[in-house]
């Protein structure tokens, strides 16, 4: 409980029994599905310290601790000494029980070591990378559900006359300019985020399964760079977008019966669990950028410039607007990367002040990159006369909206990354 995100502070103990098993003693909080009756058994993966473990994260081992010990035939047998002492009362995700667990109150919970001693954190991060991607997708799914519900309400809810139509009939609220702006904001960001997440998901598959070792390594580097962005940007955006969904509903969004508020509440945890946004951002600027002097992100920027060049060759105002915003966004990203590479080793606090704005900057520009790619494909399909013309035209229009309303934020974020440290760090604690 005292450790939080600081795993070096874990105090749970594992005592070897001499027969290959260990007795686990300690307490854990925030254990998702730590207790439930949906299965016959629950298997806990537990981080704990052996008696001779070194200090810090290098002394953490990983153990399998079942709720029920198994009989020789594999069926659940005797109850293990791990018990739920309470279920947390949470802001959202009420269908997911979050437990406080006590290990070893009655002699010790029997656990089995996973792999080698003192390598638990290394093993856990294999799971964490997958989990962080999954939580990013959870944020995306909540945003999508909030958009679907808001869109249906906006088409159904009749209120007021259309602006500029004096004495006109009452219209559904999707006819009102700001409601359209809100819906397009939701739609465009969701499409950009889904595209980026799928590209990162494909890179994950390539990193695991491509026959060429060099291609595997290249995709692994891209995946490592972007997973903090998928986790951080998609979840932070889900808080904003589910809130926008409530706003589209107006007063009815604040009423529980419509269900719009549930998406807002449920989204709030996504930027916290499996590593807060700040943890994702610190990982991004430190391990993924500064450590390699921005090598991987610079390669990604080169790919973005290729799409920018293709947009410049496409005809139409939409593509000119996309190219302009993407060009400015990539330039802003380059400026921020250069600052982090130059600053991180000399003044880590100054670089860290801009870590979350940088994560958002990279997400927004990467989303613009993917929206540009999608718009170019859509334009080709329209020129060929193939497929659903309405779908492809909507894709182009949505990409234009993203360029004008979302990607246009990139230079301001870069300014905060490069110039924002002084005021953030200057004030003495007692002046807050």
Automatic annotation (TrEMBL):
Reactions the enzyme catalyzes: 3-(methylsulfanyl)propanoyl-CoA + oxidized [electron-transfer flavoprotein] + H(+) = 3-(methylsulfanyl)acryloyl-CoA + reduced [electron-transfer flavoprotein]
Superkingdom of source: Bacteria
Domain Acetyl-CoA dehydrogenase-like C-terminal as annotated: residue spans: 302-428
The enzyme's E.C. designation: 1.3.99.41
Cofactor(s), names only, from the UniProt record: FAD
UniProt xrefs under InterPro entries: Acyl-CoA_dh-like_C_dom, Acyl-CoA_Oxase/DH_mid-dom, AcylCo_DH-like_C, AcylCo_DH/oxidase_C, AcylCoA_DH/oxidase_NM_dom_sf, Diverse_Acyl-CoA_DH
Location of the Acyl-CoA oxidase/dehydrogenase middle domain: 1-103
UniProt-recorded Gene Ontology molecular function terms: oxidoreductase activity, acting on the CH-CH group of donors
Residue span(s) of domain Acyl-CoA dehydrogenase/oxidase C-terminal: 118-284
Keywords on record: FAD, Flavoprotein, Oxidoreductase
Job of this protein: Involved in the assimilation of dimethylsulphoniopropionate (DMSP), an important compound in the fixation of carbon in marine phytoplankton, by mediating the conversion of 3-(methylthio)propanoyl-CoA (MMPA-CoA) to 3-(methylthio)acryloyl-CoA (MTA-CoA).
Sequence similarity: Belongs to the acyl-CoA dehydrogenase family.
Name this protein carries in UniProt: 3-methylmercaptopropionyl-CoA dehydrogenase
Record organism: Thauera aminoaromatica
